[in-house]
């Protein structure tokens, strides 16, 4: 492994994902915590204890002060974090802010399935300025396909009730957005429009987790087929063609920003250094927890907040690898025209048993097709129904007749203007310093 040069200085963590409760009151069939390779949830305490909260708060403050940082975000996560109860959540937020002290600003967001989100919880979040992200896949039919209760009952009515409360005038400022998992069985435009009914500030469509060893549902072996790209392109066309900006669609916006020369704020696309870390209910420090989809223990670091500073996690080889920009790309991606925008996709999606993570994403054909479409569309080179260019999985190469993805951007000023308009004129300078986050989206 090469020595770190100055350009490789570790990027301190600025987002801390706290697993405040390790269980869930739903039984979503695609959940990476309970339904995939890693089953470590079963040995963890149900709820993060007061002692772990305090130690985590001390470690966060120590890390931020040590790196001269004055802001960070904390994601309250699970399982279902609201199972921890209002009292414990209030204690946690209060304690972490107390330990951070007056010179550090911690912003909080909770990512919930919404079924326990009642007026009492919302009053608590309003009092403590905790923003709320809610997971919902679309209308009742879409939600019922995957997001069911353990007894098979629908979770949709309870989540909708919570969203009606959250989106009322008193609590709407807390609304962070909706998180939806792509389901090929759902009509993409219908899913998008049913989410729009809640006027979310942003919608985050996630690809269901999978690896080369356990492919995502409906991801065919034939690299010429791109069902997930086709699904997301349908959403893109509905979103992009709208006469006014109805909401943000995080993954699509991030790809557009990358095509315009900016940096991504999410870990699933782009090459920005990852700068977040996970703390489990028992205080174990873990890597991005979607790694649980790859193999048992994939997210483990062997570190805990009891014994280790977050700087020790920063020095972990997997964290260092995730901060190395283009050097972290899988070998096959290094000749791909889409590499700067795609970034090889989400790290867990590269896994293949016996070969580790040095592979393109299992979604490679979809990512290439999606990026290519957006690049040509915003440059005016593609009409909504234009003939598609074939996906070139496993390391597409730039050739004279196949320029790097994003090539048209910047040659057609009007087209760039269109993209910037829909994005709210992204500031490239600001974007250059951004770090991808787990936010309300990546980790669930
Ligand atoms: S080869 Fe595939 S996974 Fe790798 S950067 Fe290109 S499109 Fe992305």
Characterization of the model:
The chain is an alpha/beta fold. The protein has two domains: 12-326 and 428-432, Aldolase class I (TIM Barrel); 328-423, no CATH class. It contains 14 helices and ten strands. It has helices spanning 50-66, 86-100, 119-127, 140-146, 156-166, 188-196, 227-240, 250-259, 310-314, 317-322, 339-342, 364-378, 413-423, 428-432; strands spanning 15-19, 71-77, 105-112, 130-135, 175-181, 202-206, 248-249, 276-279, 284-286, 300-304. The protein has a ten-stranded mixed beta sheet with strand order 7-6-5-4-3-2-1-8-9-10. It is globular. It starts with 14 loop residues before the first strand and ends in a 12-residue tail after the last helix. Keywords: Iron, Iron-sulfur, Metal-binding, S-adenosyl-L-methionine. InterPro entries: Aldolase_TIM (IPR013785), rSAM (IPR007197), rSAM_sf (IPR058240), rSAM_SPASM_FxsB (IPR026335), Sulphatase_maturase_rSAM (IPR023867). It holds the Pfam family Radical_SAM. Residues 3-250 form the Radical SAM core domain.
Helical content (DSSP H or I, runs of 4+): 25-40%
CATH topological fold name of the largest domain: TIM Barrel
Please state the oligomeric state of the protein chains shown. single chain
CATH evolutionary superfamily of the largest domain: Aldolase class I
Q: Output the strand order for the largest sheet.
A: 7-6-5-4-3-2-1-8-9-10
Main sheet record: 10 strands, mixed
**How many structural domains?**
2
DSSP, total strands = 10
- Output the number of helix runs: 14
What letter string, H or E per element, gives the SSE order?
EHEHEHEHHEHEHEHEEEHHHHHH
User: So what's the CATH class of the largest domain?
Assistant: Alpha Beta
**What spatial form do the alpha-carbon principal axes imply?**
globular
Instruction: List segments where confidence is low: pLDDT < 50 over at least 5 consecutive residues.
Output: 1-6, 390-435, 438-444
